[in-house]
Amino acid sequence: MSGFTAPEIAWGPMVPVLVVLLAAVVGVLVEAFVPAARRRTVQLVLTLASLAGALLAVAALWSGVERTGGTDVLGGSLVVDGPTLVLQATIALLALLSTLIFADRVAGGEDAFAPSAAAVPGSDYEELARSKGLRQTEVFPLLLFATGGMMIFPATTDLLTLFVALEVLSLPLYLLSGMGRRRRLLSQEASMKYFLLGAFISAVMLFGIGLLYGYAGSLRYADIAAATATPNGLEGLLVVGALLLLAGLFFKVGAVPFHMWTPDVYQGAPTPVTAFMAACTKVAAFGALLRVVYGMLPGMAWDLEVVLWVVAILTMVVGTVAALVQTDVKRLLAYSSIAHAGFVLTGVVALDDSGITAVLFYLLAYGAATVGAFGLVSLVREQGTGGDEAPAVLGEATRLPQWAGLGRSHPVVAVTFTLFLLSFAGIPLTAGFVGKFAVFSAAVEGGAWQLALVGVLASAAAAFFYVRIIVLMFFTESHDATDAGHAEVSSLASGTTAGAADGADPVRVPVAVATAEAERTTRTVVVGGEGLTVVAVAVCAAITVVLGVAPSPVLDAIASVGVLLP
Amino acid sequence: MSNFPWLTALVVLPLLGAAALWLLPAGARARARTVALGFALAEVLLAVAAFAAFDTAEAATHQLVETAPWIPALGVSWALGVDGVGLALIGMSVVLVPLVVLAAWREQGSTDGPTDRLRHYLALVLLLEAFIVLVFAARDVFLFYVVFEAMLIPVYFMIGAFGGAQRRYAAVKFLLYSLAGGLVMLVGVIALYLQGPGGPEGFLVENLVGLDLDPTVEKWLFLSFFLAFAIKAPMFPVHTWLPDAAQQAPAGTSTLLVGVLDKVGTFGMLTLCLPLFPAASRWAAPVVIVLAVVSILYGALLAIGQKDMMRLVAYTSVSHFGFIVLGIFAFTSTSIAGSSFYMVNHGLSTGALFLLVGFLAARRGSQQIVDFGGLQKVVPVLAGLFLVVGLSALSLPGLSTFVSEFLVIVGTFARHPAAAVVATLGVVLAAIYVLWLYQRVFTGPVRPELATMTDAGARERWVVGPLIALMLVLGFVPGPALDLVRPPAQESIAQLGVDDVEPTAAPWVAIPAGTEGSDQ
């Protein structure tokens, strides 16, 4: 076996990924060797430093890639080109902001995660862990592993690496979803659901990869693309394999009909985790989808176009329509994220270079607004109004009626949330508008103007449910909830759905989730935490405004490197 | 000073005002009204200076031009410039704003408790003013679109947060109607860009005028733009949001909404639809003219039947917008000039009407006509003001509205006699809704519960007085104003590629009232 030669590895271009993964490994060691009292500080510093390091590394690589167009690494398993760097920077930035939300604690030192995730909900052991002040600091290394996987996912041009990256990013997310401090059963249900469906779709995708290998005899995108140029009688394998592979990617971006997990998982997972996965997973998965569609399958664009069109239209329509009747903020944002997946898909369908720039920009704009919005959700809490002298701050107030009157009581929070909603809705002078404009113009330019038309109509309908929250926050009086469920819901129904359509019956909205909290007498308060979430939200708001008013520098930067390397 | 960016200054000043109001330290918040009024008046002075810098002899060309790259990657520029029409509309708007501020002086609970609500309201008014100036000055289609959509947000809050009992419904309806129209226009905007030369200045209007468009494409593009403008204007059959919005909004908001904002619709038809899509405009003109005539009659008939004064005024505007659209799509320089002038006069007249109804409603606590009666003897000054303003709505000679309505009808008659004749019925109906309203509210026996109503105070006289004065001046001396709008109208006709039809070609028609103006 002396013939083995070590492969040439260019370490330089892989630094952004390596920094994050290395820090994750160190984070595991920290869990073992650092005293419990100091773990959180050490983990937090380590996580933030590694993500900032990844950003710096991307910046260092930037000019080289801009000059050369990018390089292959590891014999083509990874490609470090412009889109890779943009996506890695976006993921690192959004993960950095999410980390701040992960780490934040309210008065009393409670963060968003269960003190001991392994404890049975409601058991004595859990109560013991809580009273001892235990903390699940493993969330930071888990976040870093997931981030590392996400940074590889869009950079790979090799199906096997794609699959490995998918698992590396998914497994920590399954765990994180189940670690909610409050509503633990809901959280664990979300985790279970996510895991089962995720595992299933992984298998489907792996099968697709197998078929593609059978067709082309190679796992490299470029080889498969080359193979599609010459008919070899195995086209059935190609088509089925490609569809199964796309199904896996559609699952990750939350496109219809693979979206079922999204609302449940987004709602059940701890809000910081939701922020992280709603933003970063989507960025990573769309990056991978771009590379697959543009790099591997241009030869079968004709066959795939139908699929992409149908999925894009379905995603926009289903996401929008389902969001119209939600009564829980997190579920509503989940359905809105599905609709956004559809909007991004219109840019992907364009199949030209302006589409790549547009999609990359949209992902940044969407990610910033998403992290910001979920960050704010994590600050809006219930507070008991019982006879206690210092009523305890409880879980998040995610039922929409609880947000009534927030504009009066907490104007800054409400205005900031409104900013994110307007960005989601694509109102000019926010980042969301520029993103939407970019993807729709790419779609029109690519000849898919019908898709763009569906997109704008869906946007108009989507505006309704974003506006509904604004109505609720600013134009509806808050009730210091007496019968927390019904009085408010009916006032919501009469107040906001009256605008649904004149003459139509007001939509009767069911109370979202019958949790034990629905019976409890609470009022809505906004907590400041330790200020970390506030910082994250402020940065997201700044990004949303700056990208809306002066998107030029970022657009130019993306466009200057927006060419995928085969 | 010739290179001073007048238009940008006109945009920035109200923005500064809005920011100043929001950032006002807690101690100074009691003076929020004064600060807002100061900014609004300073804006008027700035507008006067901009008028001085504008060369009226060249009113057809866009002046005070500024062009700077904004988002080159998308082909978007910060391009401003006004011709006579744009300048006149900006002038009308900035005159209305201080009056709206003054009219809101005692609203929104300013007299009891901290003036905080009023402060937010006034800040939104100034923010809206900035957008208004920008939209009338935009010479870049994308910039126009951005402002067209962005200005919905302050209006939405002005209705939804400060309006009447059904304000949430009205605000949401307003927003969704406008957004739906706007988003369809977005597809048109994108498609238009792709038809044009592209590049970093691809959205400049002058780069998009005179494109050699495929006729089918041009028609679709025209429709996507026209739908947004028709909703905004609003025209029959997409007008239903307006009465709700106007009824529920505070009077000042209705003034700006109907008096100024809706002009963006007709202004867009005139400055974007006609020059960008001349062939499609000619193609659509017959249908548009029919819709305009329907708007005139339908709006007037519904106005007669209203029980709520704000709704009544809103429906009169539907009728008036019918006249404006009719004039624009009659394609004669006289009718287009009349429509342009009509836009200015309608802002003054309807604005004053909304404000006066607001004064009445504030006194009575109701906008319903049945709650009033015999007020003439109780509040003679208010009644007199109301009568004059009401007469302007039915275009009494001597008031500026007469000049513009006459020009529209005469100009239209030269090309479409039938449409003009039917439209004239709208004038008759106008007399009914105005005079009948006056009769029910101000004449008859004094209702006992109204006997103690106070007459118009100095503040209220100052609100309406300038508007009436302006209408009288423009009514008797329309020349200078017509000098602003006539050359752009001729330019529009030239861009449309139709032969102008002079009203004088029909010998039985009198010389239009405005012609002496063009000799000056």
From TrEMBL, chain A:
First-level EC class: translocase
Family: Belongs to the complex I subunit 2 family.
Residues annotated as domain NADH:quinone oxidoreductase/Mrp antiporter transmembrane: 157-459
Gene Ontology molecular functions: oxidoreductase activity
Protein name: NADH-quinone oxidoreductase subunit N
Membrane-spanning intervals of the chain: 15-37, 44-65, 85-103, 139-156, 162-182, 194-216, 236-261, 273-294, 306-325, 332-351, 357-380, 412-435, 447-467
Gene name of the encoded protein: nuoN
Xref: HAMAP family: NDH1_NuoN_1
UniProt xrefs under InterPro entries: NADH-Q_OxRdtase_suN/2 (IPR010096), ND/Mrp_TM (IPR001750)
Subunit annotation: NDH-1 is composed of 14 different subunits. Subunits NuoA, H, J, K, L, M, N constitute the membrane sector of the complex.
Species: Cellulomonas avistercoris
Primary location: membrane
From TrEMBL, chain B:
Stretches assigned to the NADH:quinone oxidoreductase/Mrp antiporter transmembrane domain: 138-428
EC annotation from Swiss-Prot or TrEMBL: 1.6.5.11
InterPro entries: NADH_Q_OxRdtase_chainM/4, NADH_UbQ_OxRdtase, ND/Mrp_TM
Subcellular location field: Endomembrane system; Membrane
Main location: membrane
One Pfam family per UniProt: Proton_antipo_M
Membrane-spanning intervals of the chain: 6-24, 36-54, 85-106, 118-136, 142-162, 174-194, 220-242, 254-277, 283-305, 312-331, 343-362, 374-396, 416-438, 462-482
Keyword Coiled coil: no
Keywords in alphabetical order: Membrane, Oxidoreductase, Transmembrane, Transmembrane helix
GO-annotated molecular function: oxidoreductase activity
Protein topology in the membrane: Multi-pass membrane protein
Family assignment from sequence similarity: Belongs to the complex I subunit 4 family.
Protein name per its UniProtKB record: NADH-quinone oxidoreductase subunit M
